[in-house]
Amino acid sequence: VETEDQVLATFCGRETTDTEQTPGQEVVLSPGSFMSITFRSDFSDEERFTGFDAHYMAVDVDECTEREDEELSCDHYCHNYIGGYYCSCRFGYILHTDNRTCRVECSDNLFTQQTGVITSPDFPNPYPKSSECLYTIELEEGFMISLQFEDIFDIEDHPEVSCPYDYIKIKAGPKVLGPYCGEKAPEPINTQSHSVQILFRSDNSGENRGWRLSYRATGNECPKLQPPIHGKIEPLQTTYSFKDQVLISCDTGYKVLKDNVEMDTFQMECLKEGTWSNRIPTCKSKKTLLAGYKGHEPPALGG
């Protein structure tokens, strides 16, 4: 009894006398869909032998049964039917062209908030195979993004070659950082850019947990401000950064004077280049202002 490349059993003798060489009730199962039986006799039959009688039947193999020495047939769900099987995936996943691996579509992840958290798909569970994910952080020019990976960092690696299988790459402006893989998270990264792309790629093997990072944006800093004499700045901070606004006002009996225009308060903003929108105005005494207007109509008050 043979398959294409293997002898499964050899039988001879009589069941009544040669039990070790006869099949008895033994079931011979082929590993595939092919089996052949070869019967051979020579010329020296001294007795009248009656031959053999064998019955065969096709038995469906359940490819979905877990086998210790092999990988599972399907990544997620396996459906067995007579003569074969097929795979399907959990919601949110797509069946790969190999018809067994489940991947994710993760190329349109856009983050526009100044702080956030980004993870590999399914984190902290093993990330999907055969996937390519792109995460984009896009903020207004004038902000700089910093990245902080958490301690749990598990991406398939190789002991001799740098990240040949799965990896993260980070693109910040003209700079490309990485690839990163293994079990040691990268150190905190200050990208010096308002636009960052994070590329995560996985191949068709491995069971790794993935990664998680948080990002934060800080604005370009503007120079320190000194309040005008007889005036004050609100809010008064040690540092000011992009989009911060301040209001300059004067003590009682004084008015804000900017470009020869008298006003009660004056607002300034820190711009994306790290410069202030205006110079600090001055505070002038109302008496001084009135003396300057003697014989002339005083200018209208500004807002």
Automatic annotation (TrEMBL):
Q: List the disulfide bonds.
A: 106-133
Keyword annotations for this protein? Disulfide bond, EGF-like domain, Glycoprotein, Hydrolase, Metal-binding, Protease, Repeat, Serine protease, Signal, Sushi
Q: Which is a Pfam family this sequence falls into?
A: CUB
Domain of life, source organism: Eukaryota
Identify the residues that the record assigns to the CUB domain, covering every copy: 1-59, 106-218
The molecular function GO annotations come to: calcium ion binding; serine-type endopeptidase activity
Q: Which GO terms describe its biological process?
A: complement activation, lectin pathway; proteolysis
Which residue range or ranges hold the Sushi domain?
A: 220-285
Key word Cytoplasm present: no
* GO CC annotation terms, alphabetical: extracellular space
InterPro entries, A to Z: CUB_dom, EGF, EGF-like_Ca-bd_dom, EGF_Ca-bd_CS, NOTCH1_EGF-like, Sperma_CUB_dom_sf, Sushi/SCR/CCP_sf, Sushi_SCR_CCP_dom
Q: Which SUPFAM superfamilies match?
A: Complement control module/SCR domain, EGF/Laminin, Spermadhesin, CUB domain
PANTHER family (alphabetical): COMPLEMENT COMPONENT 1, S SUBCOMPONENT-RELATED, MANNAN-BINDING LECTIN SERINE PROTEASE 1
What's the protein here called? Answer: MASP1
